[in-house]
Amino acid sequence: MKALGKGSIASIVQLGLQIAWVVLWFSAFCLVIAAIGYGAILLLISQGMIDPALLEGGAGNAQVAGGSGNFHFTYDQPGGGTWPVVVPALMIGGVAIGGALVIVWRLRKLFDSFSSGEPFRRENATHLRVIWITMLVIELSRYALLALTGVLLGTFGGPDVHANYTFSIDFSNWMSILVLIVLAEVFREGARLKEEQELTI
After folding, report:
1. Helical pair 83-115 and 122-156, crossing angle rounded to 10 deg
2. pLDDT, tens digit, 9 for 90 and up, residues 10-60
3. Burial 163-184, CB ≥16 within 10 A → b, else e
4. How far apart are CA 59 and CA 159, in angstroms?
5. pTM (two decimals)
6. What distances in angstroms separate CA 107 from CA 93, 110, 122, one per listed residue?
7. Which residue from 114, 126, 174, 186 has the highest number of Cβ atoms inside 10 Å of its Cβ?
8. Could you tell me which of 79, 88, 96, 86 has the C-alpha nearest to residue 170?
């Protein structure tokens, strides 16, 4: 099977990217619903309608105050769901999904040209540049949000920071960013040479 053009490997990848695009938007929708739901729980706790013990982790009974009495239910939440844990987690999820949407959208544009058999377009270099910049922002944001989580947990209390939030550097991500930087320049130079060849002809 050929790599470029219609009915090529690039066309198959393009189809996969379209599926990933839909899945990411569904994930973004779920993240927004989760954030709204958590905000509603915090509001109900502040109004005294839900027992705050629900978010403190562990197993036990909680109660929701209603107009005709209290509704009791049991829960088992070992990690805890206090805001110093959940808010940074939602932010990390937002950065990851938002960045993935940008990357997949640019990859779709890139593979559109690959499927049409025209890889050396000037805009392809721009797509690759945006992809590596987005990956860099995601990686730096991950470090910043993990540090913020550690500070919040150390200040307000919560699960053991060392047991649940370890700082690690993913060298494969950094290598991917470096490769994309090089590829962006290769495509830019390829597009320039193609344009010069067309002008010469």
Report:
1. 170
2. 778 888 899 999 999 999 999 999 999 888 888 887 787 776 666 665 544
3. eebeeeeeeeeeeebeebeebb
4. 14
5. 0.75
6. 21, 5, 15
7. 114
8. 96
